[in-house]
Amino acid sequence: MLTYQRKPVSLSLISTDLPIWSMVETAATLYHKDRDQFHILLHEPTIRDTEISSIDELPILPNVPKPRLLWLEVSPSRVIMTMQGNGKYCYRHVWERGVYGICRYWLQDDSLNLHYQLRLRNFTRNLLVQGRPIPDYLRLEYELWSQQLRMGHYVLELEIHH
Predict the structure, then answer these.
(1) 3-state secondary structure of 45
(2) Class assignment of domain 3-46+66-160?
(3) In which band, very low, low, confident or very high, does the pLDDT at 65 lie, cut at 50, 70 and 90?
(4) How confident is the model at residue 105 (pLDDT cuts 50, 70, 90)?
């Protein structure tokens, strides 16, 4: 049974030990796939390729990049998040409570021929999905690892407003 609804959402990513904080408020489409399994689709904001040091350096006509789609597959025990669509950069995270999951990042050069893959691990400390029949809250706490080096502790939260 596949049903869908359009809802406003807030998505935040916070590091508890690094100066990283990001929040997105947008509309998302929720697909109720199976019992306790949902797909949530939303557009991710643009990441600028260049830094702007002052307001005077802002371009008159904004650069309009390809849209990037965030796709979350949510169940009570596992979350998969995939970002695709920008052409140069995409990623896929797999989180499962109490398990070391995989984070993959794909980078493409300007010629659009070469693909580079960066693979990291994550350890999911806590995964909480609340709300019935449609979830209204997701909290994911995880550590990111590169071989034996811990690269921070992160909290991903998704609030679905009704």
Answers:
(1) coil
(2) mainly beta
(3) low
(4) confident
Q: Which range has the worst mean pLDDT, 47-51, 82-86, 131-135?
A: 47-51
Nearest C-alpha neighbor of 103 from the set 125, 126, 127, 82: 82
Task: Determine the Cα–Cα distance for residues 2 and 111; give it in Å rounded to an integer.
Answer: 39
Query: What tokens does 14 get?
Result: 């916070």
Q: What angle do CA 27, 31, 35 make, to 5 degrees?
A: 140
Q: Which long-range contacts (CB under 8 A, 24 or more apart) does 79-87 make?
A: 79/127, 79/138, 79/140, 81/156, 83/44, 87/112
Q: What are the residue ranges spanned by the domains of the chain?
A: 3-46+66-160
Q: What is the DSSP letter of 61?
A: S
